[in-house]
TrEMBL record:
This is alpha-glucosidase. One of its GO terms (biological process) is carbohydrate metabolic process. It catalyses: Hydrolysis of terminal, non-reducing (1->4)-linked alpha-D-glucose residues with release of alpha-D-glucose. InterPro entries: GH, GH13_cat_dom, Glyco_hydro_b, O16G_dom_2. Belongs to the glycosyl hydrolase 13 family. Its EC number is 3.2.1.20. Gene3D superfamilies: Glycosidases, Golgi alpha-mannosidase II, Oligo-1,6-glucosidase, Domain 2. Residues 23-419 form the Glycosyl hydrolase family 13 catalytic domain. PANTHER family: ALPHA-AMYLASE FAMILY MEMBER, NEUTRAL AND BASIC AMINO ACID TRANSPORT PROTEIN RBAT. It comes from the Eukaryota.
């Protein structure tokens, strides 16, 4: 295709502004030693797969030493590798191999809380000098009848009070997640210092940056006042019980983001031999807040990529074309000028695309994700259209929020179904492991749904995904202007264009019925559409010419075309 050549654009686009970040959930990606648990050597052995697919950046869910209560989001040593996952040497080999293959590695940084097994917590609980205020401690309230209760009504994200009594210290400590994940106290400069040290440790090992976990939970109002009730539920143990005005999204969060941005920028400036080090922040927060994370009203830059979860939280299987267009536009409108948009299609905390939108939507959703301007984030397995293992039994359930709500309700909140092992092949355990039992069961559909089969097939989700990544290399996809419109209630289209170059058009039918659309007005040029990428079940073949005035799209079909 005609297009800009790389040298035309490389000066004004940095690597992270248009990359695809492929999220690896290490526990479930590849097991190299047959213990049923994914590990670093397993990841290293599959980096070639990422490179062959066209992936140039990956973010890894936590790989650090952890009692694994929340599967690595409870860290007991921020500078050590979890032994089940391997050694520091394995990590160094992973980084070296990734570097050779042109893949940047981003680590998960979990600053809000440590594990209760971390030495900081043990020292804090023992009131060791220097550590007394590392965490958020409180005496609680002694009621008239003499019983002691927690300082306030805050519930934890994972169900139950956010306060736990510590027998040793004879005080309550705050935990916004499980009780084994005590909240660090960011009002204590020693905590900030200790965490800077952690970031520098990993930067010096050659990582490209960090995905920062649960960042909007970092600070709590010092008054520790009761939160107003939301009215959504009468269950005082449920996270929905209160409006989180004192425990989440405090203005101090932004200051900490600025602090970390400065640390990254300073490091990048001192070590220009490697690409810009970046941060991606995880916060399920309001649009204006997330826009401020990019850059606040004073022009201070923060997160390179505040994760945009709207395709997960605000668009559903029954959403129509207006909902999609609205959700895309609202991000672009609120994002301060001169920043890179980002689109997250899935992660280890939410149902998969095939389960949210139905298996027929897999290709169209990848087309949407990968042809929008800016950064795309893919959760491992989404390139194959892996499906949640919703039938996973209570006995096999290990996710803490699911265990907390009990056998009756676990399926409503369990994240285990989206974390089952990667389906590499039709061999035992989908080629993930040679163990007799894997940490989570493999989805039984692996015999048909696996990478090997999708590579061998004439057409497959994987091949569509790969074709889209190939298309993304073209300059028009990096710098092309963007406009999007609903064509009908159920079909929307968007265009990437650049003067004197062929435009790329993506058109998507989000309904369960066939739809006939006329694109002439949207294109406003009497030109021809040529199919660039079509879905697995499409009747259209790449290279085929289409009439823009009467385009028939099958249920849930997406098409990416070139305007010639
Ligand atoms: C983030 C992670 C999630 C984890 C939680 C607590 O939301 O994505 O998996 O359980 O933080 O660390």
């Amino acid at each position: 295709m005609a297009g800009l050549v790389k040298s035309d654009t490389e000066d004004f686009i940095d690597w992270w502004q248009h990359t695809v970040f492929y999220q690896i959930y290490p526990r479930s990606f590849m097991d190299s030693n047959g213990d049923g648990i994914g590990d670093l050597k397993g990841i290293t052995s599959k980096l070639r797969y990422l490179a062959d697919t066209g992936i140039t950046a990956t973010w890894l869910s936590p790989i650090f030493q952890s009692p694994m209560v929340d599967f690595g989001y409870d860290i007991s040593d921020y500078k050590a590798i979890q032994p089940e996952y391997g050694t520091m040497q394995d990590f160094e080999e992973l980084i070296d191999t990734a570097f050779e293959l042109g893949i940047k590695v981003v680590l998960d940084f979990v600053p809000n809380h440590s594990s209760d097994q971390h030495e900081w917590f043990k020292k804090s609980a023992a009131r060791e000098p220097g550590y007394e205020d590392f965490y958020v401690w409180h005496d609680g309230i002694v009621q008239e009848n003499g019983t002691r209760v927690p300082p306030n009504n805050w519930p934890s994200v994972f169900y139950g009070s956010a306060w736990e009594w510590h027998e040793g210290r004879e005080q309550y400590y705050l935990h916004q997640f499980t009780k084994e994940q005590p909240d660090l106290n960011y009002r204590n400069p020693k905590v900030v210092q200790a965490m800077d040290d952690v970031l520098l440790f990993w930067l010096n090992k050659g990582v490209a940056g960090f995905r920062i976990d649960a960042v909007n939970h970092l600070f709590e109002d010092e008054s520790l006042k009761d939160e107003p009730l939301s009215g959504k539920t009468g269950d005082s143990l449920s996270y929905d019980y209160t409006e989180h005005i004192y425990s989440r999204d405090l203005p101090e969060v932004l200051e900490m983001i600025h602090h970390w941005r400065q640390l990254l920028d300073d490091f990048s400036a001192k070590h220009p031999e490697r690409p810009t080090r970046i941060m991606m922040t995880e916060a399920y927060a309001g649009l204006t807040q997330l826009a401020d994370y990019y850059e606040d009203s004073n022009g201070v830059r923060g997160s390179h990529l505040p994760f945009n979860f709207h395709f997960i939280t605000d668009v559903k299987g029954d959403s129509d074309a207006r909902d999609y267009v609205y959700n895309v536009e609202k991000w672009l409108i609120y994002m301060p000028r001169g920043h890179a948009a980002n689109w997250v299609m899935g992660n280890h905390d939410n149902p998969r695309v095939a389960s949210r939108f139905g298996p027929a939507s897999v290709d169209a959703m990848n087309m949407l994700l990968l042809t929008l301007p800016g950064v795309a984030v893919t959760y491992n397995g989404e390139e194959l259209g892996m499906v949640d293992y919703r039938e996973l039994s209570w006995e096999d359930t290990v996710d803490p929020p699911a265990r907390n709500v009990g056998e009756e309700l676990y399926q409503e909140v369990s994240r285990d179904p989206v974390r089952t092992p990667f389906q590499w092949s039709s061999e035992t355990n989908a080629g993930f492991s040679t163990a007799t039992k894997t940490w989570l069961p493999v989805h039984p559909n692996y015999l048909e749904l696996n990478l090997e089969a999708q590579k061998a097939a004439n057409r497959s989700h994987y091949q569509v995904y790969k074709d889209l990544l190939e298309l993304r290399k073209s300059a028009i996809m990096r710098v092309g202007r963007f406009n999007i419109e609903p064509l009908t209630r159920w079909v929307f289209a968007f265009k990437r264009s650049y003067p004197n170059f062929e435009s790329i058009i993506t058109v998507i039918n989000v309904s369960d019925k066939e739809q006939l659309v006329d694109l002439s007005e949207f294109l406003s040029q009497p030109k021809k559409l040529v199919v660039e990428v079509s879905g697995v079940d499409s009747k259209y073949q790449p290279g085929q010419s289409l009439a823009a005035s009467a385009l028939l799209l099958a249920a849930r079909e997406g098409l990416v075309c070139r305007l010639v």
